[in-house]
Design a protein that fits this description.
It comes from Paractinoplanes aksuensis. By secondary structure, the chain is of the alpha/beta class. It has 12 helices and 8 strands. It has helices at about 20-35, 70-80, 85-105, 120, 125-140, 150-155, 160-170, 185-190, 200-205, 210-225, 240-250, 265-275; strands spanning about 40-50, 55-60, 110-115, 145-150, 175-180, 195-200, 230-235, 250-255. Bound molecules: ligand C2E and calcium ion (3 copies).
Length: about 280
């Protein structure tokens, strides 16, 4: 495993058709990268509309080679089970980071931090306890942590749903991610103890004019208001989209228009500026 050929990464390229061997190689390299602590975390701001003030951050894991995104390696980590130890590392690193921001910035620190949790992690017995222990260890208030789960991770109930109920009992918040793209979106709202919905970027992308997406995005904000949930619009790339979302009633947004996912040092310089302002 030491002779890492220079051209090796070519086989991972997201644009190439993936082969079984490439997946196996990536699986082995993921394991090694976790052991060597070569993953990093980026943090993307969640902002208030219309002004764009930061209210929270979402944690997004990064592989050392930026050409390979989590859409490529997370599914492999899920299939191989590596997502369980990788997910623990992500959770602990993110909470340690949040604790450091809390200490340095107090009231200016992010109000909440989202961490993506995959179905496999939710089905792991003891996951809620692990989260509770980590919150105590790092001294983070439970309601500062938002666990982001997809509809498909929880739609069949079972252990995954029990885990969410246990997390809620700890005071942790739950966000339903990529909302609207699964097969049970509305029905889930009756059973899943969610605090917020992250409206998928596919709806935001098509929101201009009298599109179907605009009608759906409008219906979704009305449902969340009626159920006292928060709605976060994902993938906001233009000022026009942000304006339309605000007119529809959205108050929380995330996307390249406001900020790309940032390394911790850039988050810190933003917080320093806010503190001095
Ligand atoms: P997600 O949870 O829906 O995360 C949002 C994705 O949208 C991120 O992609 C983010 O960089 C991207 N994004 C943000 N703003 C915009 C925008 O304005 N336009 C567009 N087109 N995209 C935008 P990323 O970081 O590549 O992550 C992809 C997916 O990989 C995530 O989707 C999530 O499902 C998974 N993932 C990422 N980090 C983690 C993690 O730490 N744990 C787990 N289990 N999954 C993760
Ligand atoms: Ca997410
Ligand atoms: Ca999402
Ligand atoms: Ca996604």
């Amino acid at each position: 495993a030491k002779d890492r050929g220079k051209g090796r990464f070519a086989i991972y390229d997201d644009t190439l058709e993936r082969t079984h061997e490439a997946d196996q190689q990536l699986g082995a390299d993921l394991r090694q990268a976790l052991a060597d602590e070569r993953f990093t975390l980026a943090y993307q701001p969640i902002v208030l509309l219309p002004g764009g003030e930061w209210i929270g951050l979402e944690t997004l894991v990064r592989w050392p080679d930026a050409r390979i995104g989590p859409d490529t390696f997370i599914p492999i980590a899920e299939r191989t089970g590596l997502i369980v130890p990788l997910g623990s590392w992500i959770l602990r690193t993110a909470l340690a980071q949040l604790a450091a921001w809390n200490t340095e910035f107090g009231a200016v620190a992010p109000h909440h931090l989202g961490v993506n949790v995959s179905a496999r992690q939710l089905r792991e017995p003891g996951f809620a306890e692990e989260v509770g222990d980590a919150l105590v260890e790092f001294g983070v208030r439970p309601n500062q942590l938002v666990v982001e789960v997809t509809e498909t991770a929880v739609f069949d109930g079972g252990v995954a749903l029990d885990t969410l109920v246990a997390l809620k009992a700890l005071g942790v918040r739950v966000a339903l991610d990529d909302f609207g793209t699964g097969h049970s979106s509305l029905g889930l709202l009756r059973t899943v103890p969610a605090d917020s919905l992250k409206v998928d970027k596919s709806f935001v992308a098509g929101i201009g004019g009298a599109s179907e997406e605009a009608v759906i995005a409008s219906a979704m904000i009305q449902i969340t208001e009626g159920l006292h949930l928060r709605a976060v619009a994902e993938g906001v790339e233009t000022a026009a989209q942000a304006d339309t979302l605000y007119e529809l009633g959205y108050r929380f947004a995330q996307g390249y228009h406001f900020s790309r996912p940032l390394p911790p040092a850039e988050v810190r310089s933003h917080l320093l500026q806010r503190q001095l302002a």
